Amino acid sequence: MAGGKKGKGKGPARPPPAAQAGPSKKNAAKDSKNLPTDDEMLIFTTDKPKKKGGPSSDGASGAAPAPPKPSVKQIIGGTSWTGKLPVNLLSEHCQRQKWEKPDYSMHTTDEGFSSFVTLCAKNPKTREMTKLPSFKLPPTHKHLAVKPTPLEARHFAATYALFRVCSMRNIHTTLPPDYRALWKEFDTLKKADVKDGKAWMYDADPFNTLREREASKAAAEKKRQEAQKAREKAQNMPGASGLALRNNASDSTRGNPMKGWMAAPKVELGRKTRNTIEDLLRKYTIWNPHRIVLSPSEKKAIVDELKRSGFRQSHVEEAVDECKDREETLEWLLIHVPEDDLPRWALPESYTAGVSVAATDLKREGAIERLSASGYSSELCKRVYDENGGDEGKAAEKLQQILLYSGSNTKTTKTEEAVLSDAWDSPEDCWEQEMDSLESVFGEQFSRPAGHVCQIRLTNVVNGPKKNVDASLQIQKPPHYPAHIILAITADLPSYIKLSLIKNALAYVDKDLQAEEMKIYFVIDWMQQNINEIIERPGVLREIAAVASAASEAQAPPPRASRKRPRHPKPISWKPDLRLIEGWKRRQQSPAQRDFILQRQKLPAWKVQQEVVDAVSSHQVTIISGETGSGKSTQSVQFILDDLYSQGLGNGANIVVTQPRRISALGLADRVAEERCSTVGQEVGYTIRGENRVGPNTKITFVTTGVLLRRLQTSGGRIDDVVASLADVSHIVIDEVHERSLDTDFLLSIIRDVLRKRKDLKLVLMSATLDAYTFKYYFASDGISVGSVEIAGRTYPVQDHYLEDIIPWTGFSPNKDYYDGSFDDVKESDKSPDWVAKSIGRLGGRVNYDLIVETTRAIDFELDKTRGGILIFMPGVAEIGRTCNALRSISSLHVLPLHASLETREQRRVFQPAPPGKRKVVVATNVAETSITIDDIVAVIDTGKVKETSYDPVNNMRRLAEIWASRAACKQRRGRAGRVQAGNCYKLYTRKLEEQMPERPDPEIRRVPLEQLCLSVRAMGVRDVSAFLGRAPTPPENTAVEGALNMLRRMGALDGDELTALGSQLAMIPADLRCGKLMVYGAMFDCLDHSITISAILSTKSPFVSPQDRREESKQARVRFSRGDGDLLTDLRAFQAWDEMYSGRAPMKQIRSFCDENFLSHQTLNDISTTRAQYYTALSEIGITQPSSDARSTSNSANTSGATVAILRALTASAFTPQIARIQFPDKKFAASMAGAVELDPEARTIKYFNQENGRVFVHPSSTMFDNQGFSGNAAFMSYFSIISTSKIFVRDLTAFNAYSLLLFAGGIQLDTLGRGLVVDGWLRLRGWARIGVLISRLRGLVDDIIAQKMDNPRLDLRDNQVLKTVVKLVELDGLDA
Fold first, then answer.
1. What does the pLDDT average to over 1095-1124?
2. Who's near 555: CB < 8 A, 6+ residues apart?
3. Which candidate among 109, 278, 724, 1071 keeps its CA 20 to 30 Å from the CA of 315?
């Protein structure tokens, strides 16, 4: 029945609470009129079914009727409640939300009934049912849910469920009064939950919240699993076991300390290779070779830091007394501290790279374990054991011998057979007698673990707070017993203490017990008496280092011998010689000399001869200013020399004249020697790079500025040495000081310091401009007397023609064929200003060779029969070559190039007259501005361009950049046209552009990187480079100097403030430092020719060309020379192929066809070849290669060996440091195959590259490595030459290399004191054992020592050098054993 359906509770319902037990009497009649319907009534009965034959119902008709039962609304809402009940409201809400019907679970307790609601919802698409957790009250409010009846518990549960999904609505207003009051209780509970971060419990859509929370939990779980995997991976990383100790566990909020390290390349070191390196270090390593002493504050800071890193304070204090800085101190500790006393981060427990885990020789392993038990390095024990043929006794004797002499300069020698005394018993009898004696004396303290071993327990041993330390002295019978005994300490003591105990005991035996036959008792007694004192003060690590580590020095290193100082010349003797006066007068009267004197008298300089002599005599510094052609360069030095001859002081004359260019030095030497009726090499000579023509009677020597600087740099390193090296020089003449080159300013700074100490030394400065004030003030401000002389110029008037005049005059148009008729016949319409302006606009700012040809043709036509040459100024050698080729099409011209790199014979051709019927045309660089004078020039074509040395930030190198010349330079060029007659200057730029040109060029010291200059200053022995350069005529910025010094440290040229041997070599090489470094290492590692060629390519440019419309073809041509090892090696192979054809005298047509087919520039290849020859000459001068070396002798070996390629890649990395990018590979992927899983090459686009300055960078599409999916040689890094920023940041000219190339040849190595690995150049991370970094860092020091040896002995043969072979093996095999 209906009532039974609604009342699902078991048993009769209990009466409602007293407050609502029934209607009051007052309302009884009213309530009786509104009786509930059947579906609102619960009918309770206990009547049993009537049995047949039972009493009829009529018998009960007289009984009173039963009272009406209350309805659910009355029970839940009260007698007057007419609204909806909580169960109904919840059901309606679920229906509206399209959820399933609520499910109620009932629980019975001692206190009553409690019920909970569970909601479900079905996904309309997947039909998947989602079930929420039951809505339960927290324990603090659980009592609210307990009700006396299931009905009330059910409605309570519905009310709480409604609150959970509708708390944000005012639905509580529709609830019965008592449940309305519960809503307020729930609201208080919600506020507490929201405060605790549980607001999600009250979301209107709990199913969506559940999905979001499950997704969040899944993401968190995934992240947790990834973190767990990372931790597990980190546990296998070298040094990770020490992270927890170093990175306090409570400091976990700072993030993952392994971040950035897990993806870093891992470096491993094979055991055999490690043993080889350790052997080399034991023989050759020297700590703090320059004997730098740290200040007390620096020492304290290092001690405090490394003590916190886990080292013993006493060990760090010993290290800082021996080392030069923090890094070397840390390296010293990692080499010298025994392994059991190192911090955990420094000695990872799981490191097994290159080591066989399984022991294949148990006997050997057991012997090594016993030998190393006393603290000896296990690696050293293995080595000594194997060297002694597996004889444990001999190995133990050898170890003791090494220990005894450790820390001293006494060399260990091979153990000799001991000579036994005739009075001694046989060794066996003697041993047994000693054993019996010791057993009787020491009783229970005595034991014999083996027949040839006894052990005595030592008593009352104390180690700090530890009392009665269990310690024993073990004595072993060696092969040379009783002359020798083998001692071992078994105790819970650090290795360095045990070794110190043994060393002191051995010293006692060696000093006091040599004559004793039975010495064991005395040793035991001595040990018992002294053990506690030695434990408390064990001595320094140096005393036991030779056996505590396999890599520490066998003896205390001797101080590095200082290099021999060069012998300085004897000072000048100014003693008059009357015979010289007579001889000089006779020469002056000779007819030939008189003819030259007559010619010289026509020069403007002759008029101020006496002024020059007087100024030089009365001042230390004389400044001579004069226009080009005045004769100052040729005459001034002769005036000075003739004045000395006239006084009989000619024997003391030694005048050194510097010139900025070789051609100037050669030309002036020839001219001055000719004017003095002499030959070059007698009274007048010259010294340039690769050539030297001076004799014992030479009085005037013309040199390049670099030659004099190198003489001063190699003088010994101190200013006194520089002064001494110039002792035989009477006058220094510096020509062309107005150019303000880097070398000239540097030389002025040095000479000013010399003049303070040598009052008799005379300095003459010569300038082509009249701006002498700068130099006069520079020397006068330092208390040095300065005189000056001005020489008037001797030129004819010169008419200027600008571009806006030349175009209508020649009829030139960039877009039409050239006019072949008379230039006067050009139509006036073609000369309109609009047409000229458009033509100028189309020309742009680049050199137009067609315009040069037409202008030259027009000048030749204009001059007609008039004699005289044409001088064309071009910015560089390549432009000269192209111009000469274009002009040779004009048959009436005799075209000659002129630049500093020409051979002397070729340069001298410009001074000779042209063949009959030809007009001489000289195409020159700015070398013809002031350095030389060509007498027959009547017309000058000035492109207005010059190639000036500047710093290129794109590729971080010193390059020649084409720029507009200064107005002062253009004035000098103009003056060349008026030497012999009135002339014309044709300026291929506009008047307006000339006004915008700088007045004069900035001093080079202000516009180029200063690494080379700073290195030269330091090579002279100047320690405070900044202060020295601050005294230059134009001081550079301090930031530029500091940046240069830091770069030198990163390159390895400086070690702190000390000059390395590499730095000394680089200071001598006239090339960019990076190219110089490549060549120095190339000479050492037997790949000099390849290194010189690559350097020449870098100093010129890539020989490949890429036409705009054939880029893909040119790229494929370049790929044909590629082997996947980088762009520079590709360029190298292309040059070698061309050079092989060229040196094989192949027909020029065939060579040019080869170039065209392979998109190679024949001119660029020629330039590279010329640069190579210059580098060979420079290297032969400083002894890196022999002068007889043929620049082409080895360049033909295009098929380089794998070893050469590997080392070339490494050397390229060294040259380009710090231009290095890190390669980041994606996670490995595998594919199934018949042989199992095969690793797939990553896609090129998934490989990422990062550098220090820009973060992520991209390989330029023109690079041969653009599509690379992997790199040979286990490469993990990439060096680059240039970097370009367009839509992305691209790197070009790439060479890939491996981790050991980075360690050996890139920036400094830093050890991470958290044990995570190594840091190279301040940012490149490598995972690996800290000691690997130390070994490689020390090995790099040995390489620098070899460079020093090579400098001292240029003929030193390095082909079998073990250090260099080890370096090559490390690079080839990336640290592993073969």
1. 85
2. 405, 406, 407, 408, 409, 410, 411, 412, 546
3. 278
For strand 937-942 and strand 983-987, is the pairing parallel, antiparallel, or unpaired?
parallel
Query: In angstroms, rounded to a whole number, what is the distance separating the alpha carbons of residues 195 and 1068?
Result: 75
Distance (Å, whole) CA 999 – CA 916: 41
Q: First-to-last CA distance in the chain?
A: 95
How far apart CA 494 and CA 601 sit, in angstroms, is 91
Distance CA 729, CA 118 (A): 108
Q: Flag whether pLDDT at 399 surpasses 50.
A: yes
Mean pLDDT value across the chain: 81
- Which secondary structure element, helix H or strand E, spans residue 1296, and what is its range? strand 1289-1297
1176: Cα separation from own chain's centroid:
28
Amino acid at site 695: G
* From 208-217, 593-602, 961-970, 1196-1205, the region with the lowest mean pLDDT: 1196-1205
Class of domain 369-548: alpha beta
Angstrom distance (rounded) from CA 234 to CA 244 = 12
What DSSP character marks residue 980?
S
CATH architecture designation of domain 798-1005 = 3-Layer(aba) Sandwich (3.40)
Please tell me which residue, 1160 or 289, carries the higher pLDDT value.
Answer: 1160
Q: How confident is the model at residue 56 (pLDDT cuts 50, 70, 90)?
A: very low
Determine contact, residues 445/459, Cβ cutoff 8 Å.
yes
pLDDT score for 826: 41
Q: Domain 578-714+717-791 maps to which CATH number in 3.40.1390.30, 3.40.50.300, 1.10.10.10, 3.30.70.380?
A: 3.40.50.300
The torsion angle over the Cα atoms of residues 65, 67, 73 and 75, rounded to 10 degrees, is: -150
Rounded to an integer, what distance in angstroms lies between the CA atom of residue 1214 and that of residue 1073? 11
Tens-place pLDDT, residues 656-708? 999 988 878 888 999 999 999 999 999 999 998 767 899 989 999 999 998 89
Q: Return all residues near 208 (Cβ < 8 A) that are at least 6 apart.
A: none
Angle, CA of 281, 286 and 287, to the nearest 5°: 115
Assess contact for 1295 and 1223: CB atoms under 8 A: no
User: Do strands 1318-1320 and 1309-1311 pair parallel, antiparallel, or not at all (unpaired)?
Assistant: antiparallel
DSSP string, 497-529: HHHHHHHHHHHHHHHH-TT-SS-HHHHHHHHHH
CA distance 1073 to 1051: 9
Strand partners, 1221: 1251, 1278
Rounded Cα distance, 442 and 432, in Å = 15
- Which residue in 275, 277, 270 sits closest to 1366, CA to CA? 277
What are 248-256's contacts with CB under 8 Å, separation 24+?
Answer: 256/227, 256/230
Residue 481 in contact with residue 427, Cβ under 8 Å?
yes
Q: Please give the DSSP secondary-structure letter assigned to residue 466.
A: B
Residue pLDDT, tens place only, 439-462: 889 999 999 988 889 999 999 999
pLDDT above 50 (res 1341) = yes
Q: Domains of the chain: which residue ranges?
A: 1-46, 83-204, 369-548, 578-714+717-791, 798-1005
Q: Kind of pairing, strands 655-659 and 731-734? A: parallel
Cβ–Cβ under 8 Å, residues 669 and 702: yes
- Cα dihedral across residues 1022, 1023, 1024, 1025: positive or negative: positive
Q: How sure is the predictor about 1238, in pLDDT bands with cuts at 50, 70 and 90? A: low
Burial string for 1262-1280 (b: 16+ CB within 10 Å, else e) reads: bbbbbebeebebbbbbbbb
Domains 578-714+717-791 and 798-1005 share a fold: yes
Confidence of residue 565 (pLDDT cuts 50, 70, 90): low
CA distance 554 to 402: 7
